[in-house]
Amino acid sequence: MPLSTSTRHERHGLYPQAGTVEDFQHNLAAVQAKIAAACQRAGRDPAGVRLLPVSKTKPEASLRLAHAAGCRMLGENKVQEALDKWESMQDLADLRWSVIGHLQTNKARLVARFASEFQALDSLRVAAALDRRLQAEGRALDVFVQVNTSGEASKYGLAPEELRDFMQQLPAFSALRVRGLMTLALFSAEAARVRRCFVLLRNLRERLRQEAPAGIVLDELSMGMSGDFEIAVEEGATVVRVGQAIFGARPLPDSYYWPAASGFETQESA
Question: What is this structure's pTM?
Fold first, then answer.
């Protein structure tokens, strides 16, 4: 596996704003080209990688431009923000929503109303709350289990050693369709340290696949964001969550998205 790919974290905050449909088309094509190049280096088919544009903090007008450029699912970090956007964009019937941020149990009812995907499952309490609300709505939800592969206290997610037992209990929640695992790597300019987070998630998935309970599917690996998605693709990502490289830089610091984070090596903001 190639080890020379660098991170792009030095560009954090420097991405130009996308203000037209053409800007979004250009940015989407550029990201897809980088995904294809990473797949070629790793001997993978680019069709096996899904690009999830992340629209958090961006205004509705930008989301509508992204939709016009071809985006049909958008990722949001904060549940209330995502719900508000969903409610105001009901006219776009083919637009679906992926909630990618930490969820408190009292917000499960909101996710159950509108989300097509939830990528940050990391507790049985949240699983139970989501399942109960989804049953009431008559819906099912694709979910990814979040794993803390960096060991940082500022990040959510299960510790790797907790993952096996957690997985064994998920069949009890029939409205949750477990699709795979998700992680956030170190927000670091050292590519080798970032890569280790992705390798760990892939290795965990391969081990768990052999003993996953019936109905638990671990086909997906959601890992990689604007600064490091190329490394993630090289290491097996099937979903990359890219925001700033598509929408443009966000004006707010990382602490807005993850208040517990501080310093450079913290949760990246896609």
Answer: 0.91
